[in-house]
Amino acid sequence: MTTRQKASLEFASFMAAFFFVWTIRATVLYGIDESITSPTLRAVYATLIRLLLWVLPAAAFAYWLRNERPEKYLALSAVPSWRQWKSCLLATFGFLLAVTTFEVTLGGKSVSTANLAVTPPVMGLLSFLVSPLLEEVFFRGLVMKEFLFHSSPISSNTFTSLLFAAIHLPYWLSRGGFTPAMMANVLGVFLFSLIAGWLYAKSRSIWPPTLAHILNNLLSAMLLTGHGY
Question: Which pTM does this prediction carry?
Answer without folding.
Answer: 0.96
